[in-house]
Specification:
single chain, 7-stranded mixed sheet, 8 helices, globular
């Protein structure tokens, strides 16, 4: 197969899920191409990219051959760049809708399902939540719960996640957040039991891996691995299973094949549809190779893929 990865240029080869997927693709004798989102284009209504054909070892890329590729000639295209969800991000989804290849994940549904908004499909699973730019609404929400989290709706990785326990800080925090990120703010009742923080990976709607995330320092509310949180083995409980069973069929229906979800204090916080991470950490914890299981599904999906052309 010919497979392309739309990805960030700088990755950590030791822990990045994208690199694990690339290594497994090479092991299966697939031809692998990588390109940055800025090198994607629509030329004469054909999706193309200025890419590099790559070979890898355990430490990184061993060779790079510059090549222009027609994405219609790919079997699978992986969207593996980090958010934020902005107009550049949205434009890539418009272009990738033009390709005949299987895109992981479905670009239309990735655009329709931002990570902090898709959870609204399951209101019974999430903490009390408000999404708005209106400061008075946020202040009223604070009065209801007295301990809330504020974060930009379209950011990622724990960026500018702030706990509010004093109404006097709301005005300035919200104003700065909106000015910086140019998007609404999501406010949620604070989930106090941070020791019950899990990252769960789903493949085609089914749970395939779980780990516990532990904040880097005492008092830190963010458990993002990119911010230095540690990871430990974990088992799912009945609430985790309930969440996965409820969201799994919807994710599968939408073509969101490989997804990571964040559960804190038995609440679903986010559904990561763009470049979910955690494969390498879970492999280390349980001495497994999740990328092999993922590729079994990717290959099956690609062989059965029927392109539905976009306008």
């Amino acid at each position: 197969m010919r497979v392309a990865f739309q990805m960030d240029e700088n990755i950590n080869f030791e822990i990045d899920t994208t690199f694990a997927l690339i290594k497994e693709a090479q092991r299966r004798k697939h031809r692998v191409f990588v390109y940055a989102p800025s090198n994607l284009a629509l030329k004469l209504n054909q999706p193309i990219a200025l890419a590099q054909k790559v070979s890898v070892d355990d430490c990184g890329f061993t060779s790079k051959e510059n090549v222009a590729i027609n994405l219609n000639e790919m079997n699978i295209i992986f969207i593996r760049q980090d958010p934020p969800f902005n107009m550049r991000y949205i434009t890539t989804t418009y272009i990738l809708e033009k390709t005949r290849a299987l895109v992981i994940n479905n670009p239309t549904e990735m655009r329709n399902c931002p990570e902090k908004l898709i959870t609204s499909l399951f209101p019974e699973l999430i903490p009390p939540t408000l999404i708005t730019e209106n400061i008075s609404m946020i202040r009223d929400f604070y009065y209801d719960y007295r301990d809330i989290i504020l974060k930009p709706l379209y950011s990622y990785g724990g960026s500018d996640v702030i706990r509010i326990q004093n109404e006097n800080t709301i005005q300035v925090v919200v104003e700065l957040m909106i000015a910086k990120h140019e998007c609404p703010v999501i406010a949620q009742a604070f989930c106090k039991n941070l020791e019950k923080d899990k990252r769960i990976l789903l493949m085609d709607g089914q749970l395939i891996g779980v780990m516990k995330r532990v904040p880097r320092i005492s008092g830190e509310i963010r458990t993002n691995l990119r911010l230095g949180a540690s990871f430990e083995q974990a088992e799912t409980n009945s609430r985790d299973d309930e969440i996965c069973n409820k969201i799994g069929p919807e994710l599968k229906k939408r073509g969101l094949i490989f997804v990571g979800i964040d559960i804190v204090d038995d609440f679903l916080l986010e559904i990561n549809t763009t470049s979910p991470t955690g494969v390498v950490y879970i492999n280390k914890l349980y001495n497994i190779s999740l990328e092999k299981d993922l590729w079994d599904v990717f290959e099956e999906k690609a062989s059965n893929h029927i392109h539905q052309p976009s306008l």
